[in-house]
Design a protein that fits this description.
Chain lengths: 391, 391
Amino acid sequence: MRILILGGDGYLGWPTAMYFSQLGHDVLVVDNLAKRQWEAEVDGAPLEPVPTLRHRVRVWNDVTGNEIGVAIGDIAENPRFVYRVFGEFQPDATVHYAEQPSAPYSMAGRERAVYTQRNNVAGTLNVLHAMKRHVPESHLIKLGTMGEYGTPAIDIEEGWIEVADAGGRRDRLPFPKMPGSFYHLSKVHDSHNIHFACRIWGLGATDLNQGVVYGIATDETELHSELLTSFHYDAVFGTALNRFCAQAVAGVPLTVYGAGGQKRGFLNIRDTLECVRLAAENPAEQGEFRVFNQFTEVFSVLELAELVRDAAAHLGIEAQIDHIDNPRVEAEEHYYNPKNDTLLALGLEPRLLSDELVETMLRRIADSVDRIDRATILPQVQWRIGSAVRR
Amino acid sequence: MRILILGGDGYLGWPTAMYFSQLGHDVLVVDNLAKRQWEAEVDGAPLEPVPTLRHRVRVWNDVTGNEIGVAIGDIAENPRFVYRVFGEFQPDATVHYAEQPSAPYSMAGRERAVYTQRNNVAGTLNVLHAMKRHVPESHLIKLGTMGEYGTPAIDIEEGWIEVADAGGRRDRLPFPKMPGSFYHLSKVHDSHNIHFACRIWGLGATDLNQGVVYGIATDETELHSELLTSFHYDAVFGTALNRFCAQAVAGVPLTVYGAGGQKRGFLNIRDTLECVRLAAENPAEQGEFRVFNQFTEVFSVLELAELVRDAAAHLGIEAQIDHIDNPRVEAEEHYYNPKNDTLLALGLEPRLLSDELVETMLRRIADSVDRIDRATILPQVQWRIGSAVRR
């Protein structure tokens, strides 16, 4: 298959590109490299320096003999670039990660809220129009987020819900959304736009509502030290487990926001790749808008912190858990029962979170302990205040 | 009260401004006058030439002695302007009409789709941030659309729905949305963003999901010939009833899209003003996100055409109804039962559509029959093709 990876320089995009290349597919990665600017803006460098995208592609070619194509351009601001990519590459499947991915970044004041929504929404609209023009029978695999749903008091279905009215009439409608940041809202907007494009243009799309991803390595990143992916532990781009591991290694307390009863879906970065592969190998029909909930386990944030603390203890690291004022506005005790049946039915075999995995991550992070900048780990952005990041 | 009208140069904004001014409120209107450019782009001039906003404000002052303030600026592109307006005027209520309001315009190719969503979404985000900064206890009255819901097979509640899951747990969640154009989608995005701002910042907002508005006159527009509002009959900015009336007067067939079984909520422009007043006089609580469905009657498009044909016959005009290929993608036969209880409970007394009203409109349009440009009435934009408007 010809696989187009939008956002191929990112934490998930780069490992996905290598994974599909290793499987023998023809891969083109697109990125505008904006994430590297956002990182600098908020003072959040990856744990280990990440070589440029083209350099990593050369290393990949040296190590495996496989070629990955690169096109540098902005899918939100340069529609002619987007049309040219789709027209020339003619992808069978497009994996779309190319969005501003941080909730705290989107909450750091008006400018970044507007930027996040304009960027993410316009990029996806451009992709939909380019697909319609050049490859209407190809398959869009879009990365959404479990955060689109929020934390309703009912089970969270996969994108759709059967609803009845007082008169007993029934319909299957999009699952109601209660997202928790301007970033999460941008994904809700995308979902509505993509669904519409499937309805009126007959495009086929899979919206992967992904949980919080953890992990530092995949089979492909392990092939060479320069094939690594960007690993963030800072408060803006670092996800919970990754951040806790960095805190344990750095010898600072693991900072749980509020009570820590917030439950979320989580998955290993290696399972992200499996899920995207399963979606690509089992494409949506023309006109079909599918939603898969993409996570393997549910934990509360406090459970995660305790898991890291206990794994650290095995390595002789004594980690402490601190509860800090929650910078976000979110329920800290709530019902949470999201479904994830579809990917399991397609054959996903979850790599569940284990002490061993956490210990591996801790050891890997310990190799770069001198590079951990403790000043970037504590949250600077308050949901209620909307403070800018380190203005 | 201090009432800020965003989009005060438009079809509904200008009559709303005069209405609140006449009621004794302190009114400031904001507009970037972009609608006048969009009209020129798509070759769709209003039936009668509309004097500039500042000219109409002077006439209003001459006629009534009341003053209406004017601030010309772009709420989507100029955030400092938005903050200044909110900071200096300190509105008690903000009525927000300032969006690109046409579904066909939004479907006329990629550029206009992206423009519509970026413009509408960013304008509303800027307004929310400016409210939070300067008037967090003021009331946002946002014009949404009944088109946000689409045509589900269940009753359409007012913005919220009680949902139960298989385990019998229940929650009240946002009503699922299935909008029918990139314009309608922009309003769905706005609704999610506003709801979020109410949840995290405690703002109070009323989302008025309005039906299709018809009518050419209000009590205030009738006070002077130069106090008119822009009346559109073209395929891009004209709404169904207004367009049918112009076709009857022009002696061309009334063009029903497809079978004409599409049902929609409708209301008189005078009732739009009443509804907005009722919302302003009964504001949302802090932190509350209310949705009112704002329409008074449901008709199918064919019923509307027949109503115009019959009223025209009373005036000796023989109007014919043509079914043309539907340029839109929409169900032409469907269940439709939207609720509109809240505004009625607040005291709305609907002006129902009558032969007399249609005859009045027909006579009024007949005064300007020579100005009707028949070339602009037939649809140029196809939902499936996304053709540009007269490129």
